[in-house]
Amino acid sequence: MIKYEQLGTSESSPQPKNKYSSKANILIFLLFLVLGITVWTTIPSLLYLENTTDIIEHSDQIPIQETFSTTPTTSAPLSTSIEKPIPPMSKSRKVVAAYFTSWSIYARAYNVVDMDATKLTHILYAFANLKPDGEVFLGDAWADTDKHFDGDSWNDEKKNLYGNFKQLGLLKKRNRNLKVTLSIGGWTWSTHFPTVAANPDTRKKFITSSINLLKDLGLDGLDVDWEYPKNEEDAKNYVKLLKELRKALDNYSQSRNLSYKFLLTAAMPCGEDQYRKMDLKKMNKYLDIFYLMAYDFRGSWSSKTGHQSNLYGVDLSTDKAVRYYIDQGVDNDKIVIGMPMYGRAFQNTNGLDSPYNGIGEGTWEQGVYDYKTLPRTGSIEYFDDKKVACYGYCASKKEFITYDNPQVVYQKTDYIKRNDLRGVMFWEISGDFPTSNERSLLLAAYHGLGGKDALDQTSNHCFFPDTERYIINYAFSSSNNSLNDDMTSTSFFTSKKPNNSTNVLVV
């Protein structure tokens, strides 16, 4: 360490007078200071932004924070700042998508208005259900279309739209680049997919009922979440379903003289047993986005603890799935990597890759904790640099929880940009910190992909000529189907022209 002393201050050892010496020493000091700061800040950045997708041999798990109190927001700063977005390397505009669940408005007390839509490009609404005859219907009508929120009228004489979908419509109106799609199926409601997809008549009903929901709810597209096709026959029928649905969506748009294309997306597996059964090359012809569910690699079904959403690894990993999808003919810029906004817990264990006994209570269900509650009190948060994964471990409780943190999200967004993938998806958004908190995963993804200018700017759809819902506050004219900036003279969706050309019911 260099010790700097002020010259000419000692009476016992007087220094020779030199009118330049003081200034010269100051300049030398400043030069060393600038060089030191430059080296100190540049080297970590270069190490962090290593430009390879290969698995790199790094050190083992490294604790990145001290033991946490009950307030994770006061934790030590992460090693990667989320204040300065990294410019995107991919030419395609990036997707930041999140699932919003119908049940989040109940015990979780998380509503549409709680989402930071300025950081999102797509919202996937979970879920619509499926009948054996192929009809697609809403899973919770009260939450979806009936619940009255603050400001909703109780005096309507005709059918109107309320619930979460009205709130989503208002959100779309305020954020014209925000797209909303309805997700059909999911783990619980995928039972009837095999029989529905196998029959032309039930496929037709699936398609007709789906498009009716699209126009009545003011959607930008449909998301199919079939978990999972079990054999080659299922895979063939899945392609048939997607092909016919894609054609029907395009026909609907063209027949109404609409200038836009409705989205068709699918939630896709990252488990080798599942994705190897699918005809990905043919699916690529009809899908706009493949949402890879790159989580739940480990859980209560596992024999040992482990990472649930690691980027790299020999066995289950996001990178392994991504490479397979691309090898099978899926376009890079159609692949969106899913990330969890929750952690999976294991109890009575010595840590990573160890036996365990029990999974704990969880926030809302056993063994699953909202990300915003993590790391738990007494836990130390670790970062696995080799696999790009995070976990918390409490030695006194012998509790292990696997989850993603902002550091993981940053490295995954860097991976996305380097490989020209489309973006990120989160399950599900009620589990995150608010974006005012530096530990928010949504905030990390937004900045990691490059911020607003890097994101998908495609406009959403707010004109539905033949909806069944009276959701209009619009002085209709054939030449005007746009939305006003002041949000007063148009509704969030416009419908068929009334016979008397007057305003219909106010939203």
UniProtKB/TrEMBL annotation:
CDD domains: GH18_chitinase. It is an enzyme of class 3 (hydrolase). It holds the Pfam family Glyco_hydro_18. GO terms for molecular function: chitin binding; endochitinase activity. Keywords: Carbohydrate metabolism, Chitin degradation, Glycosidase, Hydrolase, Membrane, Polysaccharide degradation, Secreted, Transmembrane, Transmembrane helix. It is found in: Secreted. The keyword Repressor does not apply. The chain crosses the membrane at residues 26-49. It catalyses: Random endo-hydrolysis of N-acetyl-beta-D-glucosaminide (1->4)-beta-linkages in chitin and chitodextrins. InterPro entries: Chitinase_II/V-like_cat, Chitinase_insertion_sf, GH, Glyco_hydro18_cat, Glyco_hydro_18_chit_AS, Glycosyl_Hydrlase_18. GO terms for biological process: chitin catabolic process; polysaccharide catabolic process. Its EC number is 3.2.1.14. GO terms for cellular component: extracellular region. Residues 94-452 form the GH18 domain. Signal peptide: none annotated. Its main location: secreted. PANTHER family: CHITINASE, CHITINASE 12-RELATED. Belongs to the glycosyl hydrolase 18 family. Chitinase class V subfamily. This is chitinase.
